[in-house]
Structures are given as C-alpha cells and as structure tokens.
Specification:
344 residues, alpha/beta, 11 helices
Length: 344
C-alpha cells in the first residue's frame, strides 16, 4: 500500500493580529515539506485547489511543477483539481507538463470540490453543478486515452480532430476520482474504471464501508480487471512523538479551521470532545504517536482493501516545525511499520 501526504496550503491564523499567515511564507515552507516527504520515502504528495482567503494554493499544477524540481521519487498529484470549473484540455496539458518535468511522476485527482467559489470566479452556473462534472470527466478520460480528439458537448466548444499536447512520459496518466461519500459518484467512478479516493474527515470510517463495497461490485460488473483496482482514503491527521502532547498543541489550530468553515455552513462550534472522539480507535482523525497512527491505517486498510492512504496534514495551518516532524515520523516510523505488517 502506498502512503503519502496531502495538503491544501492552509494559512495559519494569528488571533492577536486578526490576520492570516503570508501565502509567500506558506509556499516556501510547503516546498520544504514536500522535499522532506520525498527524502523519507513517502509514496505520494497531493495538493488541493481552493479560492479562499485561508488557503495559499489556487493552482495545484504550479505547486507540483515546483515540487518536481526538489524531489526525485515521490508521486505528485492534485488533491483535488475542481474539474467542474476547469477546462479538461488545459488541465491535461498542465499535468502532462508536470509529468515531463518529474520524469513520469504526475497524476491527476479530480473532484467536484467542497466549496463553490470557483464557479462564479470562472463564470460557471451552479445550476449545472452535476452536468459540468460529468461532461468534463468524460472528456478528460478521452483525452487521456487518445492524442487526437473529436468531441462535442454542452458546456465547452467542440473539438474536431485536434491534438492535445504535450503527452505524458508514458502516454497516459493515472486519473483518480475523489468523492465525499455519495453513491452516484462512487458508481460513476467504478463504471468508468477510475481509481477511487474517499475523503473520510468526520464520523467513523466504518460508516464508509458500504461505499467501498459498492465500488468493488460496480467495478467488476463493468468488466474492469480486479487486479488493477485502486482504492484510497484521505483523512486529517498529524504524527508526533507523544500523541497527547501533540493533541494539546494542535487542537486550537484544527478547531479554528473547523469553525471558519463551519461558520458558513451552520455547524456548531468544534469541541475538544469531538476532537478526542475523532482520535479514538474508531474515529476518523489520525492525530497521535507513530504506533497509534500505524494501527489506524492498518485497520482502515483491512476494512476497505486500500491500495493508498493519504494523511492530510495541514488543516488549520499547524506550525512548520510540527509539520516537518509529522512528515519525518510518517516516513521513518509509520510507513515502514505498515509495510512490514502487510507483508506478514
């Protein structure tokens, strides 16, 4: 199983100054974090797309291109690219370029996104939320399979025997579908043969098992090779030498971000009780010492049949030193322990 990290480029918030961290500072730190992730042997790095004040990253492919220049082995993917408000042709060209720069290490992870700012920003109608994603996903799949495209849809200009260039190192790239847990999205990914990643960021992971079972059934029923099936989860977490001390240090940052997001969604203030419930063996938060995080990853792997696990590490903008330590422990202690256990 592959083990990696994902980030959104969260900016820390200074309550006294009532201001977010400088995006310039965050991006410099982020590149150091990606470089370390590569050095400690992690398999994957993902970066997400947002268009909000609390995030530093609006264009994942630019960050991944920069990451390609400071890494050697780690796979580089978006986490996610909001395909509904992007042009599939341009997305493919950009990620193909990252693939060429990184000697074949690029992937694309697409989703509909959990925020809606990109729709008015780029001139899309939210009433077309589902139709935009479905059409653009089909076009992206065709581009990945064929260099010369003839295509006609509802939301984009037609293509008439046009080449989409450049092409990636191996002629095509892995394209993952990220979902938050809707059956329709799971079935679509399975029928189209895309690898699936489910964001499990609240509640209990066991609640998501029916979605993985549904995907496996629909994937096989669609005639795809079970040996090529890829399944992943993306969950919030951090690793520290002492799990309790880490939780005490990290809670305020994590709760602050949950409350900023929740304020526009009608959520109640995030509590320490919720945080500790998430940290429990049955919860969705991977905040703890190496042994605690290792055990939870193995539990999830056994429950779902995972081929990849991504630890989403920068929610709320934790301190750079805390992130670096978390990445170090994930690569030096957690990943080797998980790999050893899975070989038994």
């Amino acid at each position: 199983m592959e083990i990696g990290i994902s980030m959104f480029g969260d900016l820390s918030f200074d309550k006294a100054a009532r201001a977010f961290q400088s995006p310039h500072e965050r991006l410099q730190d982020l590149l150091e974090e990606v470089k370390l992730a590569d050095e400690v042997g992690l398999d994957v790095f993902g970066i997400g797309e947002h268009h909000r004040a609390e995030y530093a990253v609006s264009s994942p492919e630019i960050i991944l291109a920069a990451a390609a220049s400071v890494t050697k082995n780690i796979k580089l993917t978006s986490s996610v690219t909001v395909l509904s408000s992007n042009d599939p042709v341009r997305v493919y060209q950009n990620f193909s370029t990252v693939d060429l720069l990184s000697n074949g290490r690029a992937e694309i992870t697409v989703g509909r996104g959990s925020f809606i700012e990109s729709f008015p920003l780029f001139g899309y109608d939210l009433n077309n939320y589902n139709g935009l994603f479905t059409e653009k996903l089909e076009l992206l799949k065709q581009i990945n399979e064929t260099e010369t495209i003839s295509w006609k849809g509802k939301y984009r200009a037609a293509l008439d025997s046009q080449q989409v260039l450049p092409r990636p190192v191996n002629g095509r790239m892995d394209i993952w579908i990220a979902v938050g847990g809707t059956p329709q999205s799971v079935v679509r990914a399975a029928k189209m043969g895309f690898p699936l990643i489910i964001a499990i960021i609240g509640g209990m992971p066991a609640q998501f098992k029916p979605f993985f079972d549904l995907y496996k059934t629909e994937y096989i029923n669609a005639g795809h090779d079970p040996a090529k099936m890829q399944l992943a989860t993306h969950s919030h977490g951090l690793v520290g030498e002492n799990g309790t001390a880490l939780a005490d240090e990290y809670f305020a940052s994590y709760a602050g971000q949950m409350d900023r997001v929740g304020s526009s969604r009608g959520w109640a203030p995030y509590t320490r009780g919720q945080f500790e419930g998430g940290r429990s063996p049955e919860g969705a938060l991977f905040v703890g010492d190496p042994n605690q995080v290792t055990e939870k990853i193995l539990q999830n792997q056994e429950m779902f049949g995972l081929t990849r696990f991504l630890l989403h590490t920068d929610v709320g903008g934790p301190d750079h030193k805390l992130l670096m330590k978390s990445i170090e422990l994930l690569g030096d202690k957690v990943a080797p322990a998980v790999r050893k256990a899975l070989k038994k």
